[in-house]
Amino acid sequence: MKKSWLWLSALVLVLSMFLAACSGGEKTDSKKQGDNGEKTSEPKDGGTLVYSLDSAPEGKYNPNFYGTATDAEVIDFFDENLIDYDENLKAQPYIASWETDDNKVYKFKIKEGVKWHNGEELKIQDWEFSIKVLADKDYDGPRYVNVQDVVGVPEYKDGKADSISGIKIINDYEMEVTFDKARVNNLENFWTYAMSRKEFEGIAVKDMMASEKVRTKPVGLGPFKVSKIVPGESIEFERFDDYFGGKPHIEKVVMKVIDPSLTVGELQNNTLDMTGFHPSIIEQVEALDNINVVKYPGLSYYYVGFKLGNWDGKKNVMNEPKYQDKALRQAMYYAINRDEWVKAFFFGVGKPVNRPVPTNHWIAADNKELEQFEYDPEKAKKILDDAGWKDVDGDKFREDPNGKPFVVNFAHYATQNPTFEARAKALTQYWEEIGLKTKLTMTDAGLYYDMLEKSDKKMEVFFGGWSTGTDPDPSGLWKSDALWNYPRWVSEKSDQLLDDALDMEVVGTDSDKRKELYIEWQKHFMDELPALPIAELEEIVALNKRVKGVKYDVSGSNRPNEWWLEQ
């Protein structure tokens, strides 16, 4: 489905833990890949679509609370962003439209007659309610950043105000929102998901995430409504006839969790219609006569991060000494044969990346403007030697500059995908080849990112991945006050460059000026190396040939109400 705010958030840069790793990395034609590659007849109604996930959802089925890619896939079937994005990743009116003269004050208007699955009509107050949840003092999720720039939100969060002064309700379908300053991306960063006030009536914000309204009986605005959830196993949906975008053709959707080793067999046996999959099986999937493989441009990248500090509840504090030596981080980067690693584990649908911005984004710096950190183990060894990282006890592994034993404690998430541990071990071998003793810990994917958010001491060096957004501003990942800045990197220069790139007084509406600042930021990042960008990916999906009407571009797919099944 269209990668709505769940995937295309500008500032949040929504977390994709790549639990399915169902993507790759080379640029492709940005035209829509449509109709499952074939000429088709008129759409037909009826049938059940079977869709799979290769790891269990965390079970937070609400945009305000979810934190994993699998939960996002579930949510996208039954809920809606109020705005849309086109194939150029530009915001477009959808349920909501807007007007602004100065990028500071926006007037929003929602369509009349849009229905929640409980039969209630969507009102502008539902959107206001959602914003207030994120601004509440008891909200402990990661999306406060999407409302913090609205006038009055900090005061509301601190309990100094009973309402948000920057939100003015005009009537049931219109509201005015005032931001604290004009920014280029105020709209893209703003939270544009509503919550049904009726559904959450009487539930305190602190109790919402654990409530049945989030876990087992979620209600949305989307083309399908949830009919049954078996935690950890499956989610069933039924057609929502009153969907504002038009009655869906497909009658039911069954989303099930399957072992990745069974994917090819399920596709071959026609017991699975649609799934992302790991590149390691692409040749087997492409060989199936009943399946089409669709590739489309990705906005994702993998990286290795270093624990440089901790989260104090409001900001990052760079107070962990173990990996503060930049020479150590540089050496570990030069030690990785990224070309070899990507070819070994992404099977032609990935490529090395030299910056924390995917190539498909317009702000991406040209490679020639950046240090390439090409594989050079001898250079890595020399850097370590010069910085005092030497083997002083003759065991072939280096001690730190103070002569004390040193071990790289490396963490990677674990699913049922066997390639994950293999690729993690390959990275540890690169580091051991330059004399850095390394210990690998595979951590259950359901716990992994929660441990990172809580700055768990065990997460010293870690493997991560991000799917970025329509507006490529990296602030939500890398500013000093960003919760998802998992290395806990603090840099005044970084913060200033990112602030300037959004400041209307600095860049106005000149995208070239904005790009120049982002390029300077990428240079700074690659000089400091709080994380090591490893690979960027292309998205890949397997579709049974009976599935029709599915179209893809860089923004994702069209909405599933347009899909249909050849009976």
Blueprint of the fold:
Elements: H1 5-8, E1 48-53, H2 69-78, E2 83-85, E3 91-93, E4 96-100, E5 105-110, H3 124-135, H4 153-157, E6 167-171, E7 174-178, H5 186-189, H6 205-208, H7 212-215, E8 224-230, E9 234-239, E10 252-257, H8 263-268, E11 274-276, H9 282-286, E12 291-306, E13 310-311, E14 316-317, H10 326-334, H11 338-346, E15 350-352, H12 377-386, E16 408-414, H13 419-432, E17 438-444, H14 445-453, E18 461-467, H15 475-478, H16 492-500, H17 504-507, H18 511-528, E19 531-544, E20 547-548, E21 552-553, E22 556-557, E23 564-565
Parallel strand pairs: 1-10, 16-17, 16-18
Antiparallel strand pairs: 2-3, 4-5, 5-7, 6-7, 8-9, 9-10, 11-19, 12-18, 12-19, 13-14, 15-19, 20-23, 21-22
Helix pairs in contact: 10-12, 16-18
CATH class of the domain at 298-537: Alpha Beta
CATH architecture of the domain at 298-537: Roll
Given as residue ranges, the uncertain stretches (5+ residues, pLDDT < 50) are 1-34
- The chain-level mean pLDDT equals 90
The CATH superfamily of the domain at 298-537 appears as Dipeptide-binding Protein, Domain 3
The Cα radius of gyration reads: 24 Å
SS-derived structural category = alpha+beta
The percentage helix is 10-25%
Distance separating the two termini: 21 Å
Broad shape:
globular
The number of distinct β-strands equals 23
Largest sheet: 7 strands, mixed
Count of individual helical segments:
18
